[in-house]
Amino acid sequence: QVQLVESGGGSVQAGGSLRLSCATSGRTYCMAWFRQAPGKQREEVARIYTGGTTDYADSVKGRFTISYDNAKNTLLLQMNSLKPEDSAMYYCVANRPGYGVGWLDLQESGNWGQGTQVTVSS
Question: What was the pLDDT predicted at 106?
């Protein structure tokens, strides 16, 4: 199974930017970023397919950009205009071959990294 290691989290003020990285042992058909804040439901932030198609949660559209650096085998999430409500633990997720890529499929059968914390202060 693919190995995933996130980095790039930290503390920033509202309006600032961060770039999250996820070093992978290989790319899968669908890779995504999820986040979860204490006491809140886990949320899918963005996903990218091998063909380049991307999709974003409404809450981050226009502010976040997901991409994959094939040369470095790294999944990226550029986060701009950060808001306090973006504060959460962010996880890199890769679909498991042979399994679905729906929101629930990724949670139940996907490969997950250990997470990186993002904190945005007002």
Answer: 94
In whole angstroms, give the CA distance from residue 110 to residue 81. 29
Question: Which parts of the chain have pLDDT scores under 70?
Answer: none
Specify the amino acid at residue 92: C
pLDDT of 1: 86
- pLDDT of 102 reads 93
Q: Six-digit token pair at 30?
A: 């669908």
Q: Is the separation of the CB atoms in 97 and 109 below 8 Å?
A: no
Distances (CA, A) of 106 to 13, 32, 48: 31, 9, 13
* Strands 43-49, 111-112: pairing kind: unpaired
Picking from 42, 33, 32, 26, the residue whose alpha carbon sits closest to that of residue 101 is: 32
Note the pLDDT of residue 116.
Answer: 98
Q: What is the pLDDT at residue 22?
A: 98
Residue 76 tokens read as 């990226």
For residue 113, how many other CB atoms are within 10 A of its CB? 22
